[in-house]
Amino acid sequence: MKFVSPLFRFSSFDTWIQHFESFMQVLNRDFETTSTHECSTSIHLAPLDSEHPKWSRSDMRALSKSILYFESCLDAVMPLYRRTSVFAKSNRNNKQMAYLTIAECFSYLDSLNERKHIAGEMVRCDPNSSTGRALGQRSDFLHSGYRWNFLNLVHNKSRGTIEFRQPPGSTTSGEAITWIILAMCFAQVACAKGDSLRPKDRPNVQTLGDWVHREAVRAGVPSEHRRRLRQLFDDAMPIVSDSKKADLGLVTAEPPITVLDKHGLIWREKGERNVAMEKYWGFFMPEVTKFGDSSRL
């Protein structure tokens, strides 16, 4: 079962935190909640400005660079099974960027002049990948199943959400809230600092944790939830501890998928509603949803 929250402004902490706490309280009161490896907590991010609700090209590029650069650091705060999920693949898992160094990836992103092209390269999928074979693809295609899903921005000309798909399923409000704060604070600091990253420097989990925590303080995140965010990084389990064994120019091979994964991919491709974008358009352009026009969803 999939639950999709209303659209919230991140800075309105009392409103959305209370919403999640009340929702999970009712859910856990009346049901037994469990999480499997197929479950995830997906967070949709968008500039929430009624006058200019668009992602700028510079923000998209800076966020994309930060995603590629800090991928191993974000992996370190995830359960092992969310590091290899076919539904949250590495954004470098394609023919274009898989074997480039981080510096070369940065240069490639800098060469893209249009926002839709930046978005497209972040979700480009190889037909010979597990996902491509499961879906019977014969050429490169765009797909949502990446850690950070930019697909909504390919077709909607910079309007819409970027989706962080990697966090595991949440069974408590505290878990869900922590993942939301991580996604938002990472995105905000990434948009501000992504273009100043030095790709030849090795990414560091502690450095990222400090950046995200400082952003949480700046944004006014309540102290209780800042402590949970800090604990997330304190408990991080890096994939490779020996820097000599880590090659930032390579992406590990995509693992084979299960029959259940294959059925899930096909089901999503054939008819899963994009409820988050329906709510997005309902907020910014209510006339679109009022008349049932789903061509832009």
Automatic annotation (TrEMBL):
<protein>
    <submittedName>
        <fullName>WGS project CABT00000000 data, contig 2.4</fullName>
    </submittedName>
</protein>
<dbReference type="InterPro" id="IPR022025">
    <property type="entry name" value="Amidoligase_2"/>
</dbReference>
<dbReference type="Pfam" id="PF12224">
    <property type="entry name" value="Amidoligase_2"/>
</dbReference>
